[in-house]
Amino acid sequence: xxxxxxxxxxxxxxxxxxxxxxxxxxxxxxxxxxxxxxxxxxxxxxxxxxxxxxxxxxxxxxxxxxxxxxxxxxxxxxxxxxxxxxxxxxxxxxxxxxxxxxxxxxxxxxxxxxxxxxxxxxxxxxxxxxxxxxxxxxxxxxxxxxxxxxxxxxxxxxxxxxxxxxxxxxxxxxxxxxxxxxxxxxxxxxxxxxxxxxxxxxxxxxxxxxxxxxxxxxxxxxxxxxxxxxxxxxxxxxxxxxxxxxxxxxxxxxx
Length: 255
What we know:
This protein is α/β, with parallel strands linked by helices. The protein is built from 7 helices and 7 strands. The chain has one domain: 3-Layer(aba) Sandwich (Rossmann fold), CATH 3.40.50.720.
C-alpha cells in the first residue's frame, strides 16, 4: 500500500515558516520528502532551520519576502516557478497580530494585519494558479484561527476580522477553483504553545489556560502541522472549502 503521507517529489511553499507553527509545518513536510521553500522575513531563523533540516538530507530553501507587498509576493512565486517549475501545496501560515485594544488600532496596524493575513492569500493563490493549471491541480492551505470565526479575544479585533475574512476566502475560492482541481482548506488553531503566544515564561498562566481546555493541555505546533499534512495528502482529495478546528475541544459548548 502506498504511503499517503509521502510527499517525495512534491514542492511545498510555507509562508511564516521560520518559527512556531510554521516551523512545525516545514519540518513535517520536509521529513516526508517534500522540497520545501520557506518564505519569511525572519531570515536568520529561517536559514538556521533550513541548514538544520538539510543536514538531515531534507530539501529546504529560504526566500525573504514582505507578504504585505503584493508585487513582492508575485515576484517570489514567479522565482519559485522558474527554479522548480511546479508548486504542489501552498501553505499561507504567516500572520501579523499585535495585541492592541480596539480604541488604539491605527490605520497602519489594521492595514498591515489585513495585508499579511488576508490580502497576501489572494496574491499567493493568484500567483500559483498558472502552475496549478499546468499541473492539473494543486492545494492551498491556510492557518486560520478560532479567534474571529468562532470566538473573540480582547485586543485582537483586527486579527479576528482578518481570520473571519480568511474563512470566507477558503469557501469561495474553493468553489471557484474546484473546476481546476485546486483544493482550498484551512486549519483553525486554538491555544497553541508557541513563542508568538507570548506566555511561555508564565507557567501558572499556561496551566490556567490548559485547565480550561477539555483535553487538558495547550496545543503543540505539531498538532497543527499534522492537520496540514492530512489536508495536503491523498487522504483528503475529496475535501475542499473546509476548515479543521484543532483546539483540544476549547470551542465546544459547556453544559
